[in-house]
Design a protein that fits this description.
The structure is a single chain. This protein has helices at 7-35, 40-49, 52-56, 61-66, 70-91, 97-126, 129-165, 168-193, 197-204, 214-221, 227-237, 239-253, 265-294, 296-308, 311-320, 326-354, 359-388, 390-399, 402-408. The protein is built from 19 helices and no strands.
Length: 423
């Protein structure tokens, strides 16, 4: 029996399918290679390069717009990712597994980035704008949950298998096969649950529209209104967050003598895996509902402030180092809720920027600039933290949120964009 194709049935799983491969390729691969005896130098160089496909995905995103349907693209890419993870699992017992597995991870990374492009485009085609704003929080929430699944559950499975077999090679080989199976199940589910919206649209067209070229698709993005201001905002909006995300875990783990909080890995897993997840889910859902009710104009400034002001909590932690873990819980809950609630405004603005012909490619270009805005400051965050120390670093991070806040006040967009139409 065919699964109901209403948005609640396919949006959560489709976005879970975007986040899980990213977590495995970017984060879990580091843990895997470390456990399998690869040097820190090689891990740092080669796993960092795996991030590149997400940065440069706008270069090939027009092909996804021009050829075939978004649904066929993301289904094919998810199947390819499943096969790639299976091959990684099979190569791990080999003597030259590092080179072979890296090559396959590269294939999976390009497939995952392509899957993101197609999934984003499908979301914008399958839903009306008011539905897009409503489900923004759901999309963001399930994407983040998929990252937590990859960095948490999958690693736990690998650790369990290491204990069971006493063989790290066998444990990680089996773990990657399990990941491949999970991705295959997700692909099958998405095949039955996602609507064939583009096929119906093509059948309704009496005259096929001429396809525009790759160059025209790319160039048209940079002809949008306020494009200089828009790109500056996209690059700077997450300037503070990009640095916070890189240094937050080291701050929580480092001893208090080094300026950290002295927590254990188990403490962090418990904090983020329980109350943190709950706050993220609630914030994401409320963010989407708020925009769909009142429009982006009313909520842009409050959401930006809600996303960035929790940094003050980490400033206080780094200065006073309270002995009770309650204060860490409270700060993380505020930070996760603020992220879930506030990021909805940014994603809705990107949908507005991409709106129009070739929206899939234009959304991909916008998110590519967003990725660049995350990557470059994140690379420098460790040096800045070492120079300033944690206490001053978090003050610096809060200050770096100001440029994006200022730029947001000069953006011109329909104030009711994303608002649910009255029936």
């Amino acid at each position: 029996m065919k699964i109901d194709s209403k948005p609640w049935f396919w949006i959560p799983v489709l976005n879970f399918a975007s986040g899980l491969p990213y977590a495995i390729i970017i984060s879990v691969s580091v843990i895997m290679y470390k456990n399998l005896g690869i040097s820190n130098e090689d891990i740092g160089i080669y796993t960092s390069l795996l991030y590149l496909p997400w940065v440069i995905k706008p270069l090939w995103s027009p092909f996804i717009d021009l050829y075939s349907t978004k649904r066929k693209w993301f289904l094919a890419m998810q199947l390819l990712i499943s096969i790639a993870f299976l091959i990684v699992g099979l190569t791990i017992p080999m003597s030259n597994f590092f080179v072979l597995s890296l090559a396959v991870f590269w294939v999976a990374a390009f497939a995952s980035a392509s899957n993101d492009v197609a999934s984003d485009g499908f979301y914008m085609l399958a839903l009306a704008k008011e539905q897009q704003s409503f489900f923004l929080g759901i999309r963001s929430t399930f994407y983040r949950l998929s990252l937590l699944t990859g960095n948490g559950l999958i690693v736990i499975i690998a650790g369990f298998l290491e204990e069971k077999y006493g063989d790290k090679t066998k444990a990680w080989s089996y773990t990657m096969v399990i990941v491949a199976f999970i991705m295959a199940v997700i692909t099958i589910y998405n095949y039955f649950s996602t609507p064939r919206i583009e096929t119906k649209a093509l059948e309704d067209e009496s005259e096929p529209k001429p396809k525009i070229s790759f160059g025209e698709v790319f160039a048209s993005f940079f002809q949008k209104k306020q494009i200089g201001l828009v790109l500056s905002f996209i690059l700077l909006f997450r300037l503070g967050e990009s640095q916070l995300l890189k240094m937050l875990t080291p701050f929580l783990l480092d001893e208090k003598s080094l300026g950290g909080m002295g927590l254990t890995t188990e403490d962090i897993g418990l904090i983020y895996g329980t109350f943190g997840v709950s706050a993220l889910v609630i914030g994401g859902i409320l963010g989407g509902i708020a925009i769909s009710k009142d429009g982006l104009g009313k909520w842009m400034l409050p959401m930006i402030l809600t996303m960035h002001l929790p940094i003050i909590g980490f400033i206080l932690l780094s200065h006073f180092h309270p002995t009770s873990i309650f204060y860490v819980y409270a700060t993380v809950i505020c930070e996760q809720f603020g992220y879930g609630f506030g990021f909805a405004a940014f994603m809705m603005f990107l949908i507005y920027v991409a709106d129009g012909e070739s929206k899939t490619s234009h959304y991909s270009i916008a998110t590519g600039f967003m990725a660049l805005g995350m990557m470059l400051p994140g690379m420098l965050s460790g040096y800045i933290q070492e120079y300033l120390g944690y206490a001053s670093f978090f003050i610096w991070v809060l200050c770096t949120t100001i440029p994006g806040l200022i730029l947001s006040r000069f953006l011109i967009f329909p104030k009711d964009f994303g608002k649910k139409s009255e029936v």
